[in-house]
Design brief:
Length: about 210
């Protein structure tokens, strides 16, 4: 599990195309400290498994399903990426519960800079709009953010200078894709309420009158 608090801005150093997959080599001095084979690292919000680790670089295999459902397929050598290691038990939950399982992709629609922050509008797939609410949580390229405004096919986020400087969201331009993960709690609530609505009404045994 992750929290959406990006630890560092990494870089793609090599891409190897495999049958129905790709192997990425990534540089990230912070997240590779103590890393070993089998560890998980979130790359732009996608939970990947470390295959090899050498120095400040690691490799990870990305299956076709992940390439099709996320924006990782658009990454090339030199692309900057958000990196985060899983949170440890007992650590502070700085962002919100993030699984690293991308629900879909959106696009940067527009950016409105101001003196101390920047408002960014992001397109939203129709099947995800019901999970996004004003002041709710959403993960964009692995960054835990608060929704400012939620529309039927878009949402807006407010980015502080730290987020702009230390994550890919400071580099994204209109038309660029971003990975989206909605709040897992919202999906669980929807499923539980749906199951309850479809459940058959309980059958009660008839109450017998007491005999005198």
């Amino acid at each position: 599990m992750f929290t959406g608090i990006v630890e560092e801005l990494g870089e793609i150093t090599a891409v190897e195309n495999l049958p129905d997959a790709s192997r990425f080599r990534l540089r990230g001095p912070v997240v590779t400290e103590g890393a070993k084979h089998g560890d998980s690292i979130a790359v732009n919000g996608v939970c990947l498994t470390v295959v090899e680790h050498e120095g400040d670089e690691f490799t990870a295999d990305v299956m076709a399903e992940t390439l099709n459902r996320s924006s990782l397929g658009a990454l090339t050598v030199g692309s900057r990426v958000n990196l985060e290691r899983p949170t440890s038990v007992g650590a502070r939950l700085g962002g919100h519960i993030v699984q690293g399982h991308v629900d879909g992709t959106g696009e940067i629609v527009e950016r409105k800079p101001s003196e101390n922050w920047e408002i960014v509008k992001v397109s939203l797939p129709a099947d995800l709009s019901r999970y996004v609410v004003e002041k709710g949580s959403i993960t964009v390229d692995g960054v835990s953010l608060t929704v400012v405004d939620a529309g039927p096919d878009y949402f807006t986020i407010s980015l502080i200078p730290t987020t702009l400087a230390l994550t890919t969201l400071g580099l994204k331009q209109p038309g660029d894709p971003v990975n989206l993960e909605v709040d897992i709690i919202a999906k669980y609530v929807e499923r539980l309420l749906g199951d309850r609505a479809q459940a058959p009404a309980p059958v009660h045994a008839p109450v017998q009158e007491a005999t005198k």
